Amino acid sequence: xxxxxxxxxxxxxxxxxxxxxxxxxxxxxxxxxxxxxxxxxxxxxxxxxxxxxxxxxxxxxxxxxxxxxxxxxxxxxxxxxxxxxxxxxxxxxxxxxxxxxxxxxxxxxxxxxxxxxxxxxxxxxxxxxxxxxxxxxxxxxxxxxxxxxxxxxxxxxxxxxxxxxxxxxxxxxxxxxxxxxxxxxxxxxxxxxxxxxxxxxxxxxxxxxxxxxxxxxxxxxxxxxxxxxxxxxxxxxxxxxxxxxxxxxxxxxxxxxxxxxxxxxxxxxxxxxxxxxxxxxxxxxxxxxxxxxxxxxxxxxxxxxxxxxxxxxxxxxxxxxxxxxxxxxxxxxxxxxxxxxxxxxxxxxxxxxxxxxxxxxxxxxxxxxxxxxxxxxxxxxxxx
Length: 384
Ligand code: GLU
Known about the structure:
Elements: H1 5-8, H2 14-27, E1 33-34, H3 46-57, H4 70-82, E2 93-95, H5 98-109, E3 115-120, H6 125-132, E4 136-143, E5 149-150, H7 152-158, E6 163-169, H8 181-194, E7 197-201, E8 226-231, E9 244-247, H9 253-262, H10 269-278, H11 283-304, E10 309-310, E11 319-320, E12 323-324, H12 330-341, E13 343-344, E14 346-347, E15 359-362, H13 367-382
Parallel strand pairs: 1-13, 3-4, 3-6, 6-7, 7-8
Antiparallel strand pairs: 2-9, 4-5, 8-9, 10-12, 11-15, 14-15
Helix pairs in contact: 3-10, 4-10, 5-6, 11-13
This protein binds glutamic acid.
C-alpha cells in the first residue's frame, strides 16, 4: 500500500466508526439503538438555517477571507469578552471547524519528538493528531474517584523538558467533568512556569448541569500562552455545518492561518453566516440543555440500578462514562453489546488507558431510545 507511515499508524475514529457499523446493522433490518456518537439529536434552530439560506441567496457562496468574515470574528471576540471574561479582540480569532482548529493548533506547534500532555481518558482524536504531527503523547490522569477531576500531581510529574503543549478539555468528553477555578490556577502555573502552550478545547461549554465553565483565558498572564478552541456543533446542534473557531495571541494567528490557507482555505461561507445568527441564540440552547438534563438524570438513575456498573453523575456534556465490573476488555464488551442487544456504545479504551473497563453512552438521543437502550443494557448485564 502506498500510504505514509503516519497515516498507516493512525487508528480510525472509533466514535465515527461505530456510527458506520450501527447503520450497517440497521440496514440489515435490526432495530439498532445508537448511544455512540456525540451529537445533539436536535435540528439547528430554524432562524439560523434561514440566516444561512438568506446569505446564500444574497450571493455569499464564495471564498471568504481565510480568517473568517470580519463581522463573525468581531462577534466571537465580543462573546468571549462578555460571557467568558476573556480579554481579546477580533484579531485574535480565526474561524475554522473546531476539529480543524485542534488539528491546526497541534500540527503548527509540534515538532517531531515534542511532548504533548493530553487527558486520559480523553477524546479519541487528540492522540491521533499528535501522532500525525510526530509528537509524543504523554497522558495525564483524570481521577475517577474525584469525579474525573485532573490529578494535578500526576500532571505536574508528567511535565518534562520536552513538553511543548498541554491540552485540556473542560467540560470533558467522555467523562462529563469540569475544571474548577482552583484547577485552572494550578494549570496556569504549570503552563507559565514551563513556557508551554495551552490548548483549551471548550466545545461543550454550553452543555452544563452543575458548576460553571471557566475559560483559562480569564488569567491575563496565561492568555499569551493559550489557544482556545470552540464551535457551534454541540451548543447549537450544528455538527453538519462544520463551523467553529480558535482564539490565539495575535502574533500566533499568521502562523496558524498558513495551515488553514493551504488546506481548507476558509470555513464554509454559508456556515459563517449561520454562526453569526447562532451567537444571538439563547432560548434554543436553554431548551436543549433542559432536555439533556432530564435525560442525564434518567440515564444516571437507571444505570445506577444495574449490578456490575458504577457510574459518576456527569456535571456537563451529554455523555456518561460508567465503569463495569467483569473481566473483558471494553472493545469486546462494546462488540458484544452491539451484536447481542443491538445497542451501540463506545468502548472506553478508545479514550485512553484509563478509559479501559468503561464504556461511553451518549444521551444525545430521544428519551424513547434511551429507555429501550437501557432496558437492553440491563438485560445484557444481568445475563452475565
Ligand atoms: N466528538 C463527538 C464524539 O466524541 C463526535 C464524533 C467525533 O468528532 O469524534 O462522539
